[in-house]
Fold this protein.
Amino acid sequence: MTTISAPSIASLKTTTSTAAPSGNDTASQMARITQQIVKLTQQLKEIADGSGSAEEKQKQAEMIQEQIAMLEAQLAQLQNQQAEKAQEKQEASSAAVTGVNNPSDDHQIDVYI
């Protein structure tokens, strides 16, 4: 197993923060964030198996846990945005169309017998 040194943690932090999703699709952004969370979780597991003092391992684990928490917050925000968009689409599509089964002044038929 390899040990994560302080310089590699600093580079990990910068690569994680700069690897922001660049796609316009919310689903692809969510997938990328989920992949980053999986990678960080794997690194977190590797810390326990690695060599080094308990204090170093604790610091490394805390940094990775903070990154995971930030990514989870981003993921939750994207999920909320996606849910809001879906709700807006549903409301727009389910809005009553005037003139179809709900006659309006412009869409009435006068029948004379």
